[in-house]
Design a protein that fits this description.
Blueprint lengths: L7 H19 L6 H8 L3 H8 L2 H16 L6 H4 L4 H14 L5 H14 L3 H29 L5 H21 L6 H21 L1
Length: 202
């Protein structure tokens, strides 16, 4: 009796999941059609059918990675906080606290940037994802700029905040044992409290 025929979309996701496992476990350079096929219990021809080439597979894997790693959002719990500063700190906390459990994905992201970042297709996709990620912070930062009457743009503050997250991501990959969420949040809170105090004097 023949087994269930797997829908094309489901099979593609299985292949991507297999590629992700290999990339996290063994490194990006080990993601080949044959290894992905073996991991997924499929044929190499099926990998090429779905992705066309190794670069096609790696681009699809990058999309899969970015969809999970750069997915910040202002949740309902964050949105209801009264103070814009509190909303920004809460959003930052969610992002930073999630980094240790995403360490493998963060390391894979850096591997893409170092290994394939010079190729236009990969560089452009990474740049678009980073820009979209920063844009999530802009409305909250705009509220902070207004609340504290800061002499900077919302875009500049969002860039600064995202830079803190990116630096934290580097630290998670470099040395997880010294990663300190509370210390990072305290730095931004201290900076913003100084702005708040200065605003109160005017």
């Amino acid at each position: 009796m023949p087994g269930r025929k797997v829908p094309e979309a489901e099979r593609r996701e299985q292949l991507l999941s297999a590629a992700y496992v290999i990339a996290i476990r063994d490194g990006l350079d080990q993601v080949t059609a044959r290894r992905v096929a073996d991991e997924a219990g499929a044929s190499p021809g099926l990998v090429f059918f779905h992705f066309g080439s190794k670069d096609g597979l790696l681009l699809a894997l990058l999309e899969h990675l970015l969809a999970g790693a750069l997915d910040a959002e202002v949740t309902a719990e964050v949105a209801v906080l009264d103070s814009a500063v509190d909303r920004l700190l809460a959003l930052l906390r969610v992002e930073v606290e999630g980094l240790p459990e995403q360490r493998g994905a963060v390391e894979l992201f850096f591997a893409y940037w170092v290994s394939l970042g010079r190729q236009a297709a990969f560089r452009e996709r990474i740049s678009r994802a980073l820009e979209s990620y920063r844009e999530v912070f802009v409305p909250v930062c705009a509220d902070v700029v207004t609340e504290l009457d800061m002499p900077v743009s919302a875009q500049a503050l969002a860039t600064y905040v995202v830079s803190l997250i990116e630096g934290a991501a580097v630290q998670v990959v470099r040395d997880l044992s010294t990663f300190d969420t509370e210390a990072l949040l305290a730095v931004l809170a201290h900076h913003l409290s100084g702005q708040r105090a200065e605003h109160a004097l005017h």
